[in-house]
Write a structure and sequence with these properties.
This protein is 28% helix and 20% strand. By secondary structure, the chain is of the alpha+beta class. The strands form eight sheets. Strands 1, 4, 5, 6, 7, 8, 9 and 10 form an eight-stranded mixed beta sheet that branches. A six-stranded mixed beta sheet has the order 14-12-13-26-30-27, sandwiched between helices. A hairpin with a 4-residue loop joins strand 9 and strand 10. Bound molecules: guanosine-5'-triphosphate, sulfopyruvate (SPV) and manganese (II) ion. The site of manganese (II) ion has 3 residues, from loops.
């Protein structure tokens, strides 16, 4: 058995020593967080066949990993919120008694690191030393997790030093759940292959995260969804701040006025793209602060101040092109880990809709050969000479739909460095937010942009959000619309009704509620009867952001409808709209997506009502809890539901 190393912090020692005894690794390595150490781990993985080194001329310090076919996305069905009471996890979460869960999972962890190295990763969520920042210690037997955490969070000695002798942290334990017998050769992507052997468990009251059996993304990089959303949302509720599934961006107008905007869209619904978008509108500049998670704290002046707790981008690869998101592609030029994309013969990477011609032959995400399509140089198929129609009919993609890049934020050409470092006017407060956007993938009904009439109405809009399920989760419902309140459905660390109440509390407890951000609902994904997108999206979304800024300044009127304030088509700036370009605004479509589809909205509102009724349902086993008046959808939201329903009926 490995000897537990010494740590200055007694709580760190206790956490590592406990898991050393249970998991019995061969060796323990404490991550220092240096570039040299990072690259040495990557090279060790190359030797073991777990990484492919990409061409150092075109992709310096970049590597490709291929996951096991069963381990390609988050597993919501195996994600648990283990609060003491079931009702505190709420109706949207899987729950198990925490004592039972710990017993059950401890059995899985027994000897699970045999033949492997246990890594101890000290990490910070946020700039080290910032008052909003939180700290964690992740124990893992996955070197893939170590190098991804190095990019996605601030790791190593600096964190350990900051923790000092008695600093607090969120303890995280992770294992791929694949111990090695003596002499047994490791596989390229170790994991527990059966879905029921995987567990992604949060203990909100203990502030602990236990993950077992998966090595992918949000299941394994525990700083991300498990900590920065599930555990942090609970901390935030208890302490009066917010942890949200939101990008953060800085927008500068031609008059040099700065705006800070956050946006909550569900997984694979456009956060990374909006966060680093290149505005089509002349004179407007956009900079990135974060692309996935925002922590917002109320200031003494009533405004909400935000930081990005992360340090990199775990972005969706397919669809990322020089046309759609040049800044994301540039962020992947060096020091990036690619997972489940295509390998080209010259040691580079490729994916669908990258806007780059496919190589004649490559290696697909499963490690099989793939070939350029016969009649479309931008597609690849599993056999030589296949036509586009044949490939489409087969459902084949060469890069997995949830293939990802893990890129350092510092690579992003438009990073707002001060904001990213948590600074505003040189003070470590985070940036003051002017507007909050909600959104989702909605082929019908939901207009391009809709402004809330009040904070409460905005909270209602967020609570009513729905979206098509995407490949970011392993699900048999991909493509179907589901309710996804505030884009947080998979990430609530507590009861959804209490979460809604917490949003309402932010207004009640604000030092000056008139300074809270204005709230909008956007939809870049309306489709015509022929299946085409009716809005070009991407850089053209700057047209919507400009309208939002003008509304904040009181410079433009809106169409006040029963569902909210919608732009008049004439007020959407169409400067630089090149009708010959691949993406451009079609005026007739614009008018259509700014209309209120009354019949569609009646159905929409009924669906929202039905979701509220679901959220109000109480666990049946516990009769005491079943009768509780608490943990219900707040009356103020029910009232807006009723008001909108009545207004639509007129
Ligand atoms: P997560 O990392 O899973 O949280 O996803 P995300 O919200 O950051 O989504 P991302 O920006 O990576 O976009 C996911 C997919 O949506 C990509 O394939 C994009 O090309 C596509 N997409 C993003 N923005 C737009 C848009 O404005 N219009 C259209 N049509 N597609 C978009
Ligand atoms: C998401 O699914 O919202 C992601 C990817 O950002 S993951 O980190 O896998 O959760
Ligand atoms: Mn996300």
């Amino acid at each position: 058995m490995a000897k537990t190393p010494k740590f200055a912090n007694a709580k760190v020692f206790a956490w590592v020593d406990k898991w050393n005894k249970i998991c019995t690794p061969d060796k323990i390595v404490v991550v220092k967080g240096t570039k040299k150490e990072h690259l040495a781990i990557c090279e060790m993985m190359v030797k073991k066949g777990q990484f492919i080194k990409l061409n150092p001329k075109t992709r310096p310090d970049c590597y490709l990993a291929r996951s096991h076919e069963s381990d390609v996305a988050r597993v919501e069905g195996r994600t648990f919120i283990c609060s003491k009471k079931e009702i505190d996890a709420g109706p949207t979460n899987h729950w198990m008694d925490p004592v039972e869960m710990k017993k059950l999972m401890t059995k899985s962890y027994k000897g699970c690191m045999k033949g492997r190295t246990m890594y101890v990763i000290p990490f910070a969520m946020g700039p080290i030393g910032n008052p909003i920042t939180q700290y964690g210690i992740e124990i893992t037997d996955s070197p893939y997790v170590v190098v991804n955490m190095n990019i996605m969070t601030r790791t190593g000695d600096a964190v350990m030093k900051h923790l000092g002798k008695d600093g607090s942290f969120i303890p995280c334990i992770h294992s791929v759940g694949a111990p090695l017998k003596k002499g047994q050769k490791d596989v390229a992507w170790p994991c527990a292959k059966k879905i029921e052997d995987k567990f992604i468990t949060q203990f909100p009251e203990d502030g602990e995260i236990w993950s077992f059996g998966s090595g992918y993304g949000g299941n394994a990089l525990l700083g991300k969804k498990c900590f920065a959303l599930r555990i942090a949302s609970k901390l935030a509720k208890d302490q009066g701040w917010m942890a949200e599934h939101m990008l953060i961006l800085t927008l500068t107008s031609p008059e040099k006025k700065q705006y800070h905007v956050t946006a909550a869209f569900p997984s694979a619904c456009g956060k990374t793209n909006l966060a680093m978008m290149l505005p089509k509108l002349p004179g407007w500049k956009l900079q990135t602060i974060g692309d996935d998670i925002a922590w917002l704290k109320p200031g003494d002046d009533g405004r909400l101040y935000a930081i990005n707790p992360e340090n990199g981008f775990f972005g969706v690869a397919p669809g990322t092109s020089m046309d759609s998101n040049p800044n994301a592609l540039k962020s992947c030029k060096k020091g990036t880990i690619f997972t489940n994309v295509v390998l080209t013969p010259d040691g580079d990477i490729w994916w669908e809709d990258m806007g780059i011609k496919a190589p004649k032959q490559g290696v697909d995400w499963k490690g099989n050969p793939c070939y350029v399509c016969a009649d479309d140089p931008y597609r690849m198929g599993p056999k030589p000479g296949m036509t586009k129609a044949e490939i489409k009919a087969s459902g084949y993609v060469a890069a997995h739909k949830n293939s990802r890049f893990t890129a350092p934020a510092e690579n992003c050409p438009v990073l707002d460095k001060a904001g990213f470092n948590g600074l505003f006017n040189k003070k470590p407060t985070g940036v003051p937010i002017d507007a909050i956007l909600f959104g989702g993938r909605r082929p019908s009904t939901i207009p391009l942009v809709n402004e809330a009439k009040s904070w409460t109405h905005g909270v209602f809009m967020g609570s009513a959000a729905g979206s098509e399920v995407t490949a970011a989760v392993i699900s048999d419902q991909i493509g179907q619309v589901r309710r996804d309140p505030m884009a947080m459905l998979p990430f609530f660390g507590y009861n959804v009704c209490d979460y809604f109440q917490h949003w309402l509390e932010m207004e009640r407890t604000s030092a000056d509620a008139s300074k809270l951000p204005k709230i909008y609902f956007v939809n870049w994904f309306r489709k015509g009867d022929d299946g085409r997108f009716m809005w070009p999206g991407f850089g053209d979304n700057s047209r919507v952001l400009k309208w939002i800024c003008q509304r904040i300044e009181g410079q433009v009127k809106a169409n006040e409808t029963p569902i909210g304030n919608i732009p008049f088509a004439k007020d959407i700036d169409l400067a630089n709209n090149d009708e010959k370009a691949k993406f451009h605004v079609v005026k007739a479509d614009l008018e259509e997506i700014l209309k209120v589809d009354v019949e569609g909205w009646k159905k929409e509102i009924a669906t929202v009502g039905a979701s509220y009724d679901e959220y109000d349902k109480k666990p049946s086993k516990d009769s005491k809890e079943a009768n509780l008046a608490a943990h219900r959808v707040p009356k103020a939201l029910r009232q807006i539901l009723a008001d909108v329903t009545a207004a639509l009926a007129k």
